[in-house]
Design brief:
about 35% helix; about 15% strand; globular
Length: about 280
């Protein structure tokens, strides 16, 4: 006689097929972000089978706790979570997938008219459309539509129906953001009379080439970041502002280059603005 599979048994089955999984509480919430790992500070990286190198008790930080390792899934640290788990989630990006989460019938109707057909899974209020391929995750790309891939998790609701197809450009285009507005940069670059910096907005550092070289190096360091992207972006913003934030030489173009590089690594416009504002506050600008 067959029995109803437990969340742990379901997770072990999915992990064996290469799907990084984690337990969910009732209400679809993960088993809580610890302070050490909040906002990816521990160095978890998208597309990893198991994130680290944190040493806090797992599961600790949502998508980055997802793993395919049965030893971890059966470990003592995870036992309590599985006893309380109401469902299983998976990290789409870690499995090479992208989920278009359609939250209502209007969104489903839009997808059926706009997107290529692919594997479809029914949800409580709508559908998950699953594509083969990885991209940055983004919420509310249009009314009722979220994209879940890297640095995100999706609830496991079964294998669904239909043939898995390649991630189309139509889905990638949904996540393309408008240029970051200059609003947060204006107060940052305005210095009271008598503050540090050259007169007339001139940079106190040798020539404009010095600034250009500094921005190029900052963009390169953000682009090459392999882990702890949040922390790296903040550190680079802090360095740029500490060097050029008081002399009036930064322009909206320079700031946009930094924000664009950060967003290409998966940062949202809000994260960029927060990091810039925090750096400004730290420096007293």
């Amino acid at each position: 006689m067959s029995t109803t599979p437990t969340p742990l048994n379901t997770a072990l089955h999915l992990a064996a097929s290469g799907m990084p999984v984690l337990p969910l509480r009732a209400g679809k919430g993960p088993f809580g972000n610890c302070r050490t790992c909040a906002r990816n500070a521990c160095g978890g990286r998208p597309n990893m089978k198991h994130a680290g190198p944190c040493t806090c008790p797992a599961p600790c930080h949502a998508w980055a706790a997802a793993t395919t390792d049965p030893t971890i899934l059966r470990s003592r640290e995870w036992a309590g979570a599985w006893r309380e788990a109401a469902a299983v989630a998976y990290h789409p990006g870690g499995a090479g997938l992208t989920v278009v989460d359609l939250d209502n019938t209007v969104a489903v109707a839009w997808a059926r008219e706009t997107l290529p057909r692919t594997r479809t899974v029914a949800t409580t209020r709508g559908e998950h459309w699953i594509y083969q391929g990885v991209m940055g995750s983004s919420n509310a790309v249009r009314p009722g539509v979220d994209i879940k891939s890297t640095m995100a998790y999706a609830r496991w609701l079964g294998t669904g129906t239909g043939t898995l197809t390649a991630l189309p450009e139509a889905v990638r285009a949904l996540a393309v953001k408008a240029p970051v507005p200059a609003r947060p940069t204006t107060p940052v670059l305005t210095v009271p009379a008598g503050g540090a910096g050259g007169a007339g907005g001139e940079c106190r550092h040798r020539t404009p080439t010095y600034l250009e070289r500094g921005i190029a190096m900052a963009v390169q360091q953000i682009t090459e970041a392999r882990s702890a992207v949040h922390a790296t972006v903040y550190r680079i913003f802090l360095a740029v502002l500490s060097t050029h934030g008081r002399c009036g030489c930064l322009t909206e173009v320079h700031v946009a280059r930094l924000f664009t590089a950060a967003q290409a690594k998966g940062e949202t416009p809000r994260h960029c603005t927060d990091a810039w504002t925090n750096a400004r506050t730290t420096l007293g600008l």
